[in-house]
Amino acid sequence: MTSHIPSDKRFLIFFDFDETIVDETSDDMVVQAAPGQHLPGWLKDTYQPGRYNEYMQRVLAYLAEQGVTESDIRNVMEKMPATPGMITLFQFLRTRPQTDFEVVLLSDANTFFIESWLRRAGARQLFHRIFTNPSTFNKDGRLVMRPFHSHDCQRCPDNMCKQVVVRDYVARRTQERGRPYQRVFYVGDGANDFCPALSLGPRDVAFPRRDFPMHRLITETHEAMPGEFKAVTVPWVNAEEVVNRLRKYVTE
């Protein structure tokens, strides 16, 4: 539900989680909770391209069988470092007037991994919405993850196309608000962040992490199909670079 979000915000900003907010991939980090901090070869061999979500469900089942608890997994997630400058970016967003930013997290991780880290970092309240694969602990103590949705996009993994989420959210919120946002921002790093950034318009801004797959795909698209990627592109190494650019936009 989005009806509780005030309709007076000027800007909408999307964040990815893994390797964007945190400087790790949470699905890789959870392996640190496993015995010997590694997974057996037979389990790794079950991975199939495009079916990562199903593979992670098997990993989580294995961890539960090995006696890994909810607090074990939470402790691993809480230890993940933020990317350089990200806490500064969060502080900037938090201290802006209430009417500036609507903040949304969009990730192919899962609710438990993300919520664990955000709560530890004191950043949960910053996000108006979180779109990710739902996960809950069942009565046997296993973290059960479900796919976020299904879609027809050929570019994205079976369980999540972020462009579908971005398009639907922007359209729904524009209708609820009765007007569009001044600009939409997207902060990401991965190949699955390129797809939603393709839906941004010429006034919007993509913030790809420099030299990560999202940045490379944007660069390749500019070269191969000029005009296909419409958003302004601002690569970043330190998220303080994102803050510096946002400072310019909020004064418009």
From TrEMBL:
Instruction: Indicate which residues the UniProt annotation says bind Mg(2+).
Output: D16, D18, D189
Q: Where does substrate bind?
A: D27, D108
Spell out the molecular function terms from Gene Ontology: metal ion binding; phosphatase activity
Question: What keywords would UniProt list here?
Answer: Hydrolase, Magnesium, Metal-binding
The answer to whether the entry has keyword Hydrolase is: yes
This protein's cofactor list reads:
Mg(2+)
Q: Name one Pfam family in it.
A: Put_Phosphatase
The UniProt family comment states:
Belongs to the HAD-like hydrolase superfamily. PHOSPHO family.
Name this polypeptide is given: Probable phosphatase phospho1
Print the organism lineage. Answer: Eukaryota, Metazoa, Chordata, Craniata, Vertebrata
